[in-house]
Write a structure and sequence with these properties.
The structure holds two protein chains of two kinds.
Chain A: H1 2-23, H2 34-37, E1 43-45, E2 54-56, H3 57-74, H4 97-112, H5 125-128, H6 143-158, H7 167-177, H8 180-183
Antiparallel strand pairs in A: 1-2
Chain B: H1 2-32, E1 43-49, H2 55-66, E2 71-77, E3 82-87, H3 94-104, E4 109-112, H4 116-119, H5 130-139
Antiparallel strand pairs in B: 1-3, 1-4, 2-3
Helix pairs in contact in B: 1-5
Classes of the chains: A mainly alpha, B alpha+beta.
Chain lengths: 186, 141
């Protein structure tokens, strides 16, 4: 009886304690991340949302660059074959591919640069670019595709006033370049 | 007595877990359910100009598109003669914009609409994590 009571109280208590520990934010001073240099977690008004919607400054800059890059890619015959889903029709219960891709890529870059308030729910870069694991990938990417992507990314950044000499963009460039071996699979 | 008590605890725990699972399912459904386009939804469309264009043409096309109601952002690539624009579906449609473009400007253009095959073989960054699949399951209930 006593044992049962003990387990009935102890088990939920342990679970709650574990959840609290895992969810607890670390208060120790952390080294600034690349995300911090892009604007960090300071909240600003979201120009694309309803009045009063706030967004982290770092995420806003990343989203602006991503959106511009998507435009550049969609108009670039070297890459736009991979992104036809962007041009899908919007109808009831079918949100546009543009907003979904914008969110996914923004999440991916934000997490990659050190954002702590977002998660990326997509496949790994290797799996996402392997036609055997991702049927939506219509062929293996080569170095030419990757170079074209990097060029379009820089063009997208330039459209947001972020030049190639910007230290944050240089760091993002290094981050993207580090993914080459995972994306290029032929 | 002990057995009965244990049985009671097990039944209550199972019931609590069942209720929590249902609540979680309802929460995931409500948060991730497909929603109709709203005032802030943006969609992207593409038009292909069927004649070579230069930067002056690109500027004319861009200016005209920005004057249309519901157009959000425009990019004209003079090298590929491709026009990309986003618009607010609650205010206009890509079909309306492209047909007005064709009738108003002297550029032969055609709206690009991807085929089902093209749609199924693009966009490598599609979320396919186990969590996404669970969300999709509840979305499609």
């Amino acid at each position: 009886m006593k044992k049962t009571m003990f387990f009935a109280i102890a088990i939920p208590a342990i679970i709650i304690a574990l959840i609290s520990i895992s969810c607890k934010k670390t208060t120790a001073t952390m080294k600034p991340t690349l995300y911090d240099s892009l604007g960090g977690t300071a909240l600003v008004a979201d120009p694309m949302g309803p009045s009063g919607t706030m967004i982290e400054k770092g995420r806003l800059l990343i989203r602006n660059i991503i959106d511009s890059t998507i435009f550049v890619i969609a108009g670039d015959t070297a890459l736009n074959g991979h992104f036809t889903v962007l041009l899908s029709e919007v109808s009831m219960n079918n949100l546009t591919g543009f907003m979904a891709l914008s969110k996914n890529l923004t999440d991916f870059v934000a997490v990659g640069t050190g954002a702590r308030d977002y998660t990326y729910g997509g496949k790994s870069m290797v799996a996402a670019h392997d036609p055997a694991q991702n049927p939506r990938m219509n062929g293996k990417a080569d170095n030419g595709d990757f170079n074209a992507f990097e060029t379009d990314l820089l063009a997208g950044a330039a459209k947001n006033g972020v030049t190639t000499s910007n230290p944050a963009l240089v760091s993002v460039g290094k981050l993207v370049e580090s993914l080459r071996s995972q994306v290029v699979q032929q | 007595m002990t057995k009965k008590f244990l049985q009671k605890i097990l039944i209550r725990t199972a019931l609590s877990l069942a209720v929590l699972t249902i609540v979680l399912g309802i929460h995931i459904y409500l948060v991730t359910r497909p929603s109709s386009p709203n005032a802030y939804t943006r969609a992207m469309a593409r038009m292909d100009i069927r004649t070579p264009i230069n930067t002056t043409d690109a500027a004319v096309i861009s200016k005209w598109l920005y004057q249309q109601k519901g157009v959000d952002h425009v990019l004209v690539n003079p090298k590929t003669a491709i026009v990309i624009f986003t618009y607010y579906p609650m205010q206009t449609t890509a079909t309306v914009i492209s047909s007005q473009f064709i009738s108003s400007l002297p550029y032969p253009a055609v709206r690009f609409i991807p085929t089902a095959a093209q749609m199924s073989s693009g966009c490598p960054v599609a979320p396919r994590s186990p969590f996404f699949k669970i969300c999709q399951y509840f979305k499609n209930l």
